[in-house]
Specification:
5-stranded antiparallel beta sheet; HATPase_C_sf; Beta-Lactamase; kinase; 5 domains; 45% helix; extended; alpha+beta; 24 helices; 773 residues; phosphoprotein; Sensor_HK_Regulatory; phosphorelay sensor kinase activity
Length: 773
């Protein structure tokens, strides 16, 4: 490809020069005369140029600098050093340079050289293109410079003629067809390879008869590419068939427009490349279909038991060098190598164990599944699948992390139980239906409740009579029931004091938990000295309990991810027909499974993001984010939902929106969460998104005309797992806005919500350009 690019570059330059040479051949003598005249004028010119840039740099012939007694001068200030321009002339000339650079004056003055006392005429004005704007071209009288200019031009003309001859020879010797078209797009020049391809006697015959390289007319014809290239103003590539040497070949034709209406072209024979590409694509597709459907290590053996395919996860899992696997080892050798690397389970009779796995090649069973526990504690799930052609496919799933997480979860549960039982507080957790789900030993002791009865998980309504019998004021027990309901249903935290009939006093608190449950705590505050210590211990216990809850939710989310991935993978295999063709209803069921897997995966990702945010573990993947493009993508995805509800969906992207440094995925999810809420809670009217920005920040306003939020709810919409009762009687679990604030604040931005019940809600997202906290 590098050779192709180099040849194309040389050809384009050569074709241009050749075309110009052909079209200007009749003017060559006249051009030579003009060149000689110009050379004579330059030789006789009594002035020399001095170019002064805006920043004070100068560019001049060294001879002129010697005449000015300023050899080696690099800036205009250097012209006055030593015995150069006199200070008065230098200062006056410098003042005039500023006026000329602005285009309001020209220079005509005489200056004196201090070393020789000579007077020189200086004339000048703004320098023409391609000099940078603000440059000034000065002409200083000196006849010798014109002679050198004439010689330089003559040398340049000779070099151009030599280069044109060399390029013409290069084009003629090129191993691929090249041509030039003029006027009516007929052939004006062809090289030797073109003549050989069309089997013509010489180039003149090809041009005279108009013999084309490819057959056909119209859009498929040889001239069509030249016409399109000249019309579009850039190179046009086409792939067309042609008959070369009695064989049908595939050619890549390139037409390049040149100045003056000339079009150059060249062709490459890509038949072998196309054949190789087709074969490679077929082979890569078969391997990709296997590899892309596996989330773990995968290998495949041919009927002769040699390794024909492996993926990178298998090389890592087996700790075997890819170079060795590329050699296609036999099945037994591979198992022996894995045993040497301690990547097989320890067995008493390895030859017999190996022979049993070798029988998988000829087994009548469709799938062989095993669990391998390695010496280092790794846990592998191995699935062997005999292939119809006598080969074997084996899939390796590393379940080590899953097993460890399960063990960590069990340990976490035991630690939590031990922690709760050793707290000084009485702790109880009530589910959203008011049922007691978790408690510690001290909670039962405070209320003198039987442990076996608590093990039946009574509801709070059943506990109230038992509470009332222990209180100084039995009617206060009803308040405990309302506290639990308020914490679970209304997500309201409250606290207070209780006085027991035996003289003890307790401080209690009802706290809503992120999972919708309510935490009820009690602590004995009978004497003031114990109050301070007990409150300190309670705070520590609650912090530990919060960490335990957060880690528990995160671990459970990770625990759910692996079986969910397996469910999605097997469902995709069912959909693709690996277990046989599916009936119509079965396809619908599988589609429903995949949709549910996708929704549950997104929910798990949201829960993990929330728990990571609670621990401060949010890690952003920095990249340049085109905010305008991101907003267009998100709004296009949301438009169908808005149209389905009959809403007007307006998007106004300000010119200052631009881009920023941030996490593309999390910024996209933040906008999706807010827009999804706006559409979901707007029954009529419109949803509007407006952006504006400056050099420091970008503001994104999302407003709707929906039902709005009550004032008491607005302060809690950014709390994790917040629930609100909707008009339809459903309980909405709020993950979107907490995630949005978490992601935006991770970028150093802010989220502000304003809502009027019955009139609508607006959310203003402010993001800094740098995306830093």
């Amino acid at each position: 490809m590098a050779l192709f690019a180099l040849a194309a570059l040389w050809f384009a330059v050569g074709a241009f020069l050749a075309a110009r040479g052909i079209s200007d051949r009749r003017r060559a003598s006249r051009l030579g005369g003009h060149a000689k005249a110009i050379g004579a004028l330059l030789a006789a010119a009594p002035v020399r140029p001095l170019l002064v840039y805006r920043d004070g740099r100068v560019e001049a012939d060294p001879a002129l600098l010697r005449e000015l007694s300023a050899e080696g001068a690099e800036t205009f200030a250097d012209l006055a050093n030593g015995s150069g321009l006199s200070p008065e002339d230098h200062q006056a000339l410098g003042a005039q340079l500023g006026e000329v650079a602005l285009g309001v004056a020209t220079i005509e003055r005489a200056v004196t050289i201090q070393s020789s006392g000579r007077r020189l005429d200086v004339r000048g004005g703004p320098a023409p293109a391609p000099s940078p704007p603000g440059s000034v071209l000065l002409w200083i009288g000196e006849s010798s410079s014109a002679e050198r200019d004439r010689a330089a031009m003559a040398e340049q003309l000779g070099a151009t003629e030599r280069a044109m001859g060399a390029l013409t020879q290069l084009i003629e010797a090129a191993p691929f067809p090249m041509w030039v078209r003029e006027g009516d797009f007929g052939l004006a020049l062809v090289n030797r390879a073109f003549v050989a391809a069309v089997e013509a006697p010489d180039a003149a015959t090809v041009v005279e008869r108009g013999i084309e390289l490819v057959e056909g007319g119209g859009e498929a014809g040889a001239r069509a590419g030249a016409e399109l290239a000249l019309k579009e103003g850039h190179a046009i590539e086409r792939v067309r068939p042609a008959t070369i040497g009695g064989e049908r070949r595939t050619l890549r034709l390139v037409d390049v427009p040149l100045p003056g209406g000339t079009v150059a072209g060249y062709a490459f024979d890509i038949q072998e490349l196309e054949d190789a590409r087709s074969e490679l694509e077929r082979h890569a597709l078969s391997q990709r279909e296997l590899s892309d459907r596996m989330t773990a290590g995968a290998i495949q053996f041919d009927p002769d038991r040699t390794l024909s395919f492996y993926n990178r996860p298998f090389a890592v899992l087996s700790d075997i060098e890819p170079d060795w696997l590329d050699e296609g080892p036999e099945f037994d050798r591979l198992l022996e190598r894995m045993r040497e690397n301690h990547r097989l389970p320890e067995v008493r009779d390895f030859p017999e164990w190996k022979a049993e796995r070798r029988d998988w090649f000829i087994s009548a069973e469709e799938v062989h599944e095993e669990e391998w526990i390695l010496a280092n504690g790794d846990h592998l799930r191995v699935v062997g699948q005999p292939l119809p052609d006598g080969g074997l496919r084996i899939i390796f799933e590393d379940r080590t992390e899953q097993v460890r997480l399960s063990s960590a979860r069990d340990t976490l549960l035991r630690v939590r139980t031990a922690t709760f039982d050793n707290l000084f507080e009485g702790v109880a957790v009530f589910a959203s239906d008011g049922r007691l789900t978790l408690w510690n030993r001290r909670f039962g002791d405070f209320w003198s409740l039987d442990e076996s009865w608590l093990a039946q998980h009574p509801r709070v309504d059943e506990l109230v009579p038992a509470f009332a019998g222990r209180l100084v004021n039995p009617t206060a027990a009803a308040r405990l029931r309302e506290l639990v309901r308020g914490a679970t249903g209304e997500r309201r935290a409250e606290q207070g004091r209780l006085s027991l009939a035996d003289g003890r006093h307790f401080a209690f608190a009802a706290v809503p938990l992120p999972d919708g449950n309510a935490l009820f705590t009690m602590i004995d505050v009978t004497d003031s000295s114990r109050i301070e210590a007990a409150l300190r211990e309670r705070a520590e216990a609650l912090e530990q309990a919060d960490r335990v809850r957060t880690d528990f939710v995160a671990n459970m989310s990770y625990e759910l991810r692996t079986p969910l991935t397996s469910i999605g993978g097997f469902a995709e295999m069912l959909r693709e027909g690996y277990a046989g063709a599916l009936s119509g209803p079965a396809k619908d069921y599988v589609a429903a499974i995949l949709e549910s897997v996708s929704r549950l995966s997104r929910l798990i990702d949201d829960v993990l993001d929330l728990t990571q945010g609670a621990r401060g573990d949010v890690v952003l993947e920095r990249e340049r984010v085109d905010l305008a493009g991101l907003i267009r993508t998100v709004t296009v995805q949301m438009e169908p939902a808005a149209k389905a509800k009959g809403l007007r969906f307006k998007v106004v992207i300000g010119e200052g929106t631009g881009s920023m440094s941030g996490d593309h995925r999390r910024l996209r999810e933040s906008l999706e969460h807010v827009l999804r809420n706006a559409v979901a809670y707007t029954d009529k009217g419109e949803v509007r998104l407006v952006t504006r920005g400056d050099a420091e920040r970008v503001e994104i306003l999302i407003a709707d005309t929906g039902r709005g939020l009550a004032e008491e709810h607005q302060a809690r919409v950014f709390e994790r797992f917040t629930r609100f009762s909707e008009r339809r009687g459903e309980a909405a679990l709020g993950l979107g806005l907490p995630l949005t604030r978490q992601f935006v604040e991770a970028h150093g931005g802010t989220v502000q919500l304003s809502s009027v019940e019955g009139k609508g809600t607006s959310v203003l997202i402010t993001l800094p350009r740098s995306g830093d906290r």
